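REQUEST FORM: STRUCTURE PREDICTION
Request ID: SP-0412
Submitted by: Lab K.M.
Chain count: 1
Length (residues): 203
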Amino acid sequence: MRYKLFYLMAFSFFLFFTSNAYSADIENGKKLFKYCTLCHGNVGQGIKGGDFPKIGGLPKYYLMSQHDLFVSEQRYNPAMLTIGRLDKMSDKEKDDLYTYIASIDIKTSAPTLQIPTYTGDVKAGKKLYKGDCKTCHGSVAQGKDKKKAPPTAQQYSEYLLRQIDFFQAKERIHDEEDDETFDDYSKQEIIDIITFISTLDDK
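STATUS: Completed
RESULT:
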């Protein structure tokens, strides 16, 4: 009986120690976020026009994966290293930063920020989206953890268009190296898909 009690206490201590040792420090994450605000805005709202996306509220799994791609230069953007200091962060700092960013509620923090409907055909875009995008990104572009796919609703249309251009040019990996999702889409079809996504801003 004493041995069982000892092992139970030891196991409880182990759980307590590990859960606290690796718990994210939101306040530290907020401090680290100051390096991101120059490009991504004070609450991660980004900048309209396609250069700097909204990152506030993006899921942590996606933020962490993109961090690693930038550090390894599989996604090439020197500013993410020189200004964002991504390559200087410890694992704990990464955890703190991305826990904080994921916790941001853009609709509360920037309530007047809206994504205007883009310029294409909503109905055509919806049909195309349901065919190729829904499985990974969700029925209303909310993203899916199990697919490691980010939400695309509430993201700037110009930014999405620019990223798809990169996918088509094979300058950025969409899902995997040999992904052919966008290879057969015309420019108009892509604009239609993004137009449908832009109608999901308030959903």
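NOTES: DSSP finds eleven helices and no strands in the chain.
Reviewed by: T.R.
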